[in-house]
TrEMBL record:
Domain of life of the source: Bacteria
Cross-referenced PROSITE patterns: 2FE2S_FER_1, 2FE2S_FER_2
Protein name: Ferredoxin
A Pfam family of this chain: Fer2
Keywords of the record: Ubiquinone
Record GO terms (molecular function): 2 iron, 2 sulfur cluster binding
Domain 2Fe-2S ferredoxin-type intervals: 7-89
Length: 89
């Protein structure tokens, strides 16, 4: 498996752009690898603590989350970008 970039994650708060690589298990993991602090608890999509706003783009879930997710929100712990995304933490 290669770790080539497959998408970019842009943070709305500061316009920082992070490359998401194929070997990364989730958006949360990718952000943490860049020393970006994100609230989380379960890492499984159960609690919703890692909830963020999806400003633009699409994500795919590793597994459908059990926590309630409103339109325009994503759970960082259990999703991967499906193309470039723009998020607000």
């Amino acid at each position: 498996m290669t770790d080539r970039p497959t998408a970019s994650i842009t943070l709305a708060d500061n316009s920082q752009c992070i490359e998401f690589s194929t070997g990364c298990p989730s958006v949360l993991h990718c952000l943490e690898s860049q020393q970006i602090e994100v609230a989380f608890q379960c890492r499984e999509g159960y609690c919703g603590a890692c909830r963020a706003t999806l400003v633009s783009g699409k994500v795919d879930y590793n597994e459908e989350p059990l926590a309630f997710v409103r339109d325009g929100e994503i759970l960082l712990c259990c999703c991967k970008p499906n193309g470039d995304i723009h998020i607000k933490l």
